[in-house]
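Deliverable D2.4 — example input (structure tokens):
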């Protein structure tokens, strides 16, 4: 399988009152374009820090991050901003929709930032919103008029409107109820089935079950990986038992 992202001796250190905290330690990692990659680990293990370094939202202290054959870890902040607009989509637990804009304007703002063709994007935004269950009656509403599940689905459309080569998500179902969380996971599963590269940070077993590769972090290092077939192609009970056994072995 081809690696869309890989790291070489990746390190991230934070300084707190003069004390150095080594969050990521000499990490070598490959993210395959064909995988739905899930990053798990205890609180403080470095999951979100790793996600930010892989996606260009933060720079490593040492080591390198490559997107394909291109090193992005040496980019300036402006270069990283361009990289993220061109290649990445982001879905967060806190959705960060713009309160003063309607649902549709929130989508189009992200699209137009990449200077894509507006008439084509309008049609595409309409199609994607309908596909994730956001009907026309919601397009002119504002974020504070939406439920949590509706807001997260809008956030997903905003993240994929520019056809990102890789989609990053940080605890995307963390603030949702069970039904809304399942709806969001179904959307992610469908995106992956259509060829979308995915990297998701989660502590949730239901979310991890949707992946094809689970990476377990401990103290900033990968201590284990677990491979699974594409979701829906195997028996769910066997899939769950295999993942639970792996996580128990990891001390989860």
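Example output (designed residues):
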């Amino acid at each position: 399988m081809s690696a869309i992202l890989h790291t070489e001796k990746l390190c991230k250190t934070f300084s707190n009152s003069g004390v150095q905290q080594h969050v990521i330690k000499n990490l070598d990692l490959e993210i395959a374009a064909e995988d739905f990659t899930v990053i798990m680990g205890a609180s403080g293990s470095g999951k979100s820090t790793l996600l930010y370094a892989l996606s260009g939202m933060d720079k490593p202290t040492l080591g390198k991050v490559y997107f394909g054959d291109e090193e992005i870890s040496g980019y300036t902040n402006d270069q990283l901003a361009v990289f993220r607009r061109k290649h990445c989509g982001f879905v967060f637990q806190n959705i960060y929709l713009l309160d003063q804009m309607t649902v549709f304007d929130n989508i189009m703002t992200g699209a137009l930032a990449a200077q894509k063709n507006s008439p084509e994007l309008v049609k595409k935004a309409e199609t994607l919103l309908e596909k994730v269950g956001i009907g026309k009656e919601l397009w002119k509403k504002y974020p504070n008029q939406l439920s949590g599940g509706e807001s997260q689905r809008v956030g997903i459309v905003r993240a994929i409107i520019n056809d990102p080569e890789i989609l990053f998500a940080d605890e995307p179902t963390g603030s949702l109820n069970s039904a809304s969380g399942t709806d969001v996971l179904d959307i992610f599963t469908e995106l992956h089935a259509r060829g979308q590269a995915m990297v998701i940070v989660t502590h949730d077993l239901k979310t991890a079950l949707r992946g094809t590769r689970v990476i377990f972090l401990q103290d900033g290092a990968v201590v284990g990986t677990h491979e699974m077939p594409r979701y829906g192609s195997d028996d769910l009970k066997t899939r769950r038992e295999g993942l639970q056994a792996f996580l128990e072995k990891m001390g989860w």
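DSSP finds eight helices and ten strands in the chain.
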